[in-house]
């Protein structure tokens, strides 16, 4: 997930400008989309471990959970229970492609407004649901809202900030995701003993961040890139002056206009994505999302209360352990905000791979040795599992979490940006859906070995970062082609002269 260069700007460090109060307000409002997403991630696991919720919608799981001799690893294995969590992400997958079109045609701002309205509708259905059908329909509406927000908000953040703050401001989205998870874990803890409607309260509170995004969106402006892309040139110039806090924005404005003219030459951006020169950005964007999910993070975050109950914690203790994990998640994401533009993307990712590999392997070993099909994990070992989960979450939160969103948002040129980013969002949602739908069944079938499965993926990710992921720190977005892709030992073979010829034609047509 996820310093910010202007999306569509070139020349970066020469443009000047500062982080104005208006940019801060815009960033806070847009990042609230992450708060919606994070709250839902955190609330699902807590709600699906509440007896009142299970008894109403999943009576078979409720009976299995309280069966004295039931297998520890399998007591929550139910496809419909997993569908409650995963249906949102399947809907978000489809919605991201629709959101891409709306982003391009109508702007990032209106896409975020639609996201908040759809999310609010889903919240109402979930909180008032009387049967499983309404519950799943509500989740699908939430998913469409998440798909819209995850498409528009990171792009918006990348397009409003100066180049040297691109990483930090974009990661506000992921920081809000972690804050949402923490808030959900705390709320789960306090409402778990409110019978019989504690789960309704937990699901209903999801409407608060959506309401903030909806109302806050009326205070913010559209990005200059989007305005210029839609031929609102004067408004784009005025907005650029407003968000930069200076009047001399001619150089940056001309770069945005030139990028927009080049983008307009591309009539079918999705088709253009399939061309050879777009392959590096597309592969990187999709791979970052797939790998982000195969770290196993959402298996931990969705089902943390369930996981902690599996290793022997009682209901309240498991919810509190989840809240502690959520707090560490927030703190570690702040580390990423501070470090990403100083240390760079690759060092953070590589360090995290090492830390995640060690912790996942250790968790798998402890469970394999000490957690049998029946009975609880010894108290000391259960404590170590919580510590290791915290260390694992810590490393993810300052690396693959925010950078999984940041890197795809800064690597595509304007002509394929919304289309390319929709592939990133949809890939994330597809594999989030697969992990959410499969994890409890994997835990039942593979038992402790499920953690070795994720550790193996972390090893593959490490090799990917070393050999195939270029460093993009402090490089303006529209200079990525020349300064990153054409100089990379592997990806340079996919670069050709088509871009140069197309740019030359545009310059001749526009006089720039």
From TrEMBL:
GO terms for cellular component: membrane. The chain crosses the membrane at residues 21-39, 80-98, 110-129, 135-157, 169-192, 198-220, 282-306, 318-340, 347-367, 382-407, 419-440, 446-469. One of its GO terms (molecular function) is symporter activity. It comes from the Eukaryota. Signal peptide: none annotated. The keyword Transmembrane helix applies. Pfam families: Sugar_tr. It is found in: Membrane. SUPFAM superfamilies: MFS general substrate transporter. Residues 26-473 form the Major facilitator superfamily (MFS) profile domain. The lineage of its organism: Eukaryota, Viridiplantae, Streptophyta, Embryophyta, Tracheophyta. It is a multi-pass membrane protein. Keywords: Membrane, Sugar transport, Symport, Transmembrane, Transmembrane helix, Transport. This is Major facilitator superfamily (MFS) profile domain-containing protein. Gene3D superfamilies: MFS general substrate transporter like domains (1.20.1250.20). Belongs to the major facilitator superfamily. Sugar transporter (TC 2.A.1.1) family.
């Amino acid at each position: 997930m996820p310093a910010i260069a202007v999306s569509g700007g070139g020349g970066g460090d020469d443009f000047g400008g500062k982080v104005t109060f208006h940019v801060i307000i815009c960033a806070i409002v847009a990042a609230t989309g992450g708060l919606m997403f994070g709250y839902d991630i955190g609330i699902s696991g807590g709600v699906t471990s509440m007896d009142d919720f299970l008894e109403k919608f999943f009576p078979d799981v409720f009976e299995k959970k309280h069966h004295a001799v039931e297998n520890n690893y399998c007591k929550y294995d139910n496809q419909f229970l997993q569908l409650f969590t995963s249906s949102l992400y399947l809907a978000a997958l489809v919605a991201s492609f629709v959101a891409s079109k709306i982003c391009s045609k109508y702007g990032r701002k209106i896409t975020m407004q639609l996201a908040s309205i759809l999310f609010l509708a889903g919240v109402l259905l979930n909180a008032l649901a009387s049967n499983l059908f309404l519950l799943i329909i509500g989740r699908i509406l939430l998913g469409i809202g998440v798909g819209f927000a995850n498409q528009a908000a990171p792009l918006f953040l990348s397009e409003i900030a100066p180049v040297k703050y691109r990483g930090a401001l974009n990661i506000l989205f992921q920081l809000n995701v972690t804050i949402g998870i923490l808030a959900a874990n705390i709320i789960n803890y306090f409402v778990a003993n409110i019978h019989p409607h504690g789960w309704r309260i937990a699901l209903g509170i999801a409407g608060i961040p959506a309401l903030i995004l909806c109302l806050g969106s009326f205070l913010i402006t559209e990005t200059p890139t989007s305005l210029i892309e839609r031929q609102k040139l004067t408004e784009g110039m005025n907005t650029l002056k407003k968000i930069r806090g200076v009047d001399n924005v001619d150089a940056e404005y001309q770069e945005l206009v030139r990028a927009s003219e080049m983008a307009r030459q591309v009539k079918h951006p999705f088709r253009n994505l399939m061309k050879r020169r777009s392959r590096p950005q597309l592969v990187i964007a999709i791979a970052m999302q797939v790998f982000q999910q195969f770290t196993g993070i959402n298996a931990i975050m969705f089902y943390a209360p369930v996981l902690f109950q599996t290793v022997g914690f009682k209901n309240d203790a498991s919810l509190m352990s989840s809240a502690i994990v959520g707090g560490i998640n927030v703190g570690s994401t702040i580390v990423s905000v501070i470090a990403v533009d100083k240390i760079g993307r690759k060092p953070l990712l590589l360090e995290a791979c090492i830390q995640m590999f060690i912790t996942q392997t250790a968790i798998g070993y402890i469970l394999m040795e000490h957690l049998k099909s029946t009975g609880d994990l010894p108290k000391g070992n259960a404590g170590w599992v919580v510590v290791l989960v915290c260390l694992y979450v810590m490393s993810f939160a300052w690396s693959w979490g925010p950078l999984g969103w940041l890197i795809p948002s800064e690597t595509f040129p304007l002509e394929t940006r919304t289309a390319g980013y929709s592939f990133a969002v949809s890939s994330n949602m597809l594999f989030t859906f697969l992990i959410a739908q499969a994890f409890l069944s994997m835990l039942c079938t593979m038992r402790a070995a499920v953690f070795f499965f994720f550790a193996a993926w972390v090893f593959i990710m490490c090799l990917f970062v070393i050999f195939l992921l270029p460093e993009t720190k402090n490089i303006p977005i529209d200079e990525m082609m020349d300064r990153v892709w054409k100089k990379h030992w592997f990806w340079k073979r996919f670069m050709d002269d088509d871009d140069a010829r197309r740019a030359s034609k545009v310059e001749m047509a526009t006089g720039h």
